[in-house]
Amino acid sequence: MIQSLSTSLLYAFISFGIYFATMLPLEKAFKNHDQSIFREQWLTDCAFFFGQYFIWTGMIEYGLTTFDSNTYRFLFLIQSFREYVAAQPLWLQIFEVIFLCDISIYWGHRLSHRIPWLWRFHRVHHTSKKLDWVAAFREHPVDGFYTRLIENLPGILMGFPLEVLVGFMVLRGMFGLLIHSNAKISIGPLKYILGSPMLHHWHHDIHRNGSCNFANLMPLMDIIFGTYYHPKEFPDDYGIQEKIPHGYWQQILMPFYSRFKEPSD
Length: 265
Hints:
- The radius of gyration is 19 Å and the shape is globular.
- It is an all-alpha fold.
- Helix 1 crosses helix 2 (42-75) and helix 4 (90-112) packs antiparallel against helix 6.
- It is built from ten helices and no strands.
């Protein structure tokens, strides 16, 4: 037990060190806001990282596995559909799952800003007053499970193996670090195909109240559904306008007992 805990602790610090060594040079080379590495609430976001690593990720994976296995029992009734999907070329399957998952997470994300019960948990992610790669980990575990379920739902229903979906989830997670980073990166004409830090930073702008740029990967979703917003500069202020505590366990427990304002448009 002690050896297992020490191994997990070692892996956690190695993972954090790899992210730190990868993202910090990027943020320094393409620095947007002039902010300290160890800025305000940095330790809170680190607590979210280690909380996900040691506590919540295992629970989320167990929940997804349980949902996935039960869904397969249902899909057995429509086995012909799964066989049709599996018979398609691999490149087409990959395109379909990325496109459909992006539509799914777009609407799932947008609803988390509109439905009060979902906003209770999702708003934790929006409490960061400064954005960088570490802030990407500030996510309530209930919101985390909801997000992972929604983004993988099309792939699960289409019969993709859970291992493949986990691979997509890891890639999306790495992309999430990039779009939260304090890096001013221009991707030129690809800005309509791939998200960027600037687009997602405007989603966190305190004055826009999360009313734009909901897409996880492809801004095309925001363009189609009328929520695309891409000015020439980054926003100056992030967070939410309500005053709330920023301690780790306070933010974990707060959605269950405090009164929340409904999400605003």
